[in-house]
């Protein structure tokens, strides 16, 4: 079952990191193929034939249609390799995990996508201001949801990474890149710091896949 799996990814893509981390957590053997966004390789016909959106990541499983969209890929991983799970607790806790994940996946990350920020303005400073605004808004929502929930766990809802954390940690990495003050979001900041000690997170970290200069 874990043979013939190929992940097309970009080293600094937050959606790619989600899937790299998920594959590490599940212990799924696979091949990684880098796609250079800076060289517009994701727009080439060969890649678009796999993923019509022209975005990363894309998971190719032998004998099946390629999968785009990180959440769809992670849900497939969860159903195909149930343990360790990306979810915990009862139905309400699992819904909270999904809410937290979608706060990033739907409400934050797409608005900081380079295609969006460049369409917003050709000015790089304005692009950065735009991205910081939406990142801070999204992390603010995430932080508030954690505070309302009230638990003090190493990750968002438990001692193990969930789908929520697979989305949060790459988003905090992006926040640091764009100069967001993470002291405004102490729970998110502390969860990120703990994640940086986790072997599966370290193994999937962007810096491990940064292209040679």
Could you characterize what this model shows?
By secondary structure, the protein is an alpha+beta fold. It has two domains: 5-84, Glutaredoxin; 91-200, Up-down Bundle (Glutathione S-transferase Yfyf (Class Pi), Chain A, domain 2). The protein contains nine helices and four strands. It has helices at 14-26, 45-48, 70-80, 91-105, 114-120, 124-149, 163-177, 186-195, 199-204, and strands at residues 5-9, 31-34, 58-61, 67-68. Helix 1 links the parallel strand 1 (5-9) and strand 2. The longest helix has 26 residues, at 124-149. The radius of gyration is 17 Å and the shape is globular.
Across the major sheet, the strand order is 2-1-3-4
Number of strands: 4
Global morphology: globular
Extract low-pLDDT stretches.
none
Round the mean pLDDT to the nearest integer and report it. 96
CATH architectural grouping of the largest domain: Up-down Bundle
Q: Structural class of the secondary structure composition? A: alpha+beta
Search tags:
alpha+beta, 7% strand, Glutaredoxin, 4-stranded mixed beta sheet, 2 domains, globular, 213 residues, Glutathione S-transferase Yfyf (Class Pi), Chain A, domain 2
Topology (SSEs and partners):
Layout: E1 5-9, H1 14-26, E2 31-34, H2 45-48, E3 58-61, E4 67-68, H3 70-80, H4 91-105, H5 114-120, H6 124-149, H7 163-177, H8 186-195, H9 199-204
Parallel strand pairs: 1-2
Antiparallel strand pairs: 1-3, 3-4
